């Protein structure tokens, strides 16, 4: 009997955690990543209380941003920000992915009317509208990298695919899916496939055919397949090489110190105006909805702190 060990993924099938898998397929000619993001999309939904259309749109952008982060961030301190600006009812979205596999994001208008493309299929493109996708990568260099493209459809996966082709000259295929039901997010995930420079014409043809016939990622998830198995199904390649598995999570980096810095950044005049209010102010984090109250006294102290050095200089 030959070696019975399966070349396909050996990840336990029972885990339902969010994670990212990275792989090389088709003789190392194709790079592939896939992820499950169901729990982190649900966490965003719990924080922002979005209508189904907003939850799906933001879920797709968060999933796509995590795929971009896996592709392009090297260090844990690196980050990637994706900003969708559109003239549709969602009024745009902002997502930040990090080099340690966390993501956070928000929709400018979390509650919008539910529109369907066809029964069971939400019309995300219409909710996003026409506009742009901006990608900012902070790789710890002096200047962050920035790329910006027009939205193709507002359906997010197509827009990210176009961004990768137009702005990074990397032909890719991107699939993103988020399903909502009465209980919230039932399934969310995505994949991204990139030809490496030495990919043969034959490999490109083979993959294009498979991609064109490949069902949506949420179809496979509903059938119980995990991200590894989805890549197995996409490539049909028993020699696929899994490089890494990483857990994913929704996480915010806000803090009181960061909020103080934001207040100081407003400048003395605006801060002085805020410090007039005996009630103080309450700052809320866009990403996690955490509240940071500042009393009038605390605002005055911040104001003193920024005015003092100038007075000292004048002496
Ligand atoms: Zn926060």
Q: In words, what does this structure look like?
A:
The chain is α+β, with helices and mostly antiparallel strands and 315 residues long. The chain has two domains: 19-250, Hsp33 domain (3-Layer(bab) Sandwich); 256-308, CBS domain Like. The chain has helices at 38-48, 52-72, 124-128, 157-167, 201-212, 217-222, 227-235, 256-265, 268-274, 296-314, and strands spanning 19-25, 30-36, 79-86, 93-98, 102-107, 116-118, 121-122, 131-138, 145-150, 172-181, 184-195, 241-247, 249-250, 281-284, 291-294. The chain has a six-stranded mixed sheet with strand order 9-8-3-4-5-13, with helices on one face. Strand 3 and strand 4 (93-98) form a beta hairpin. It is globular. Bound molecules: zinc ion (ZN). Zinc ion binds next to loops.
Question: Any key phrases for this structure?
Answer:
single chain; 315 residues; alpha+beta; CBS domain Like; six-stranded mixed beta sheet; five-stranded antiparallel beta sheet; binds zinc ion
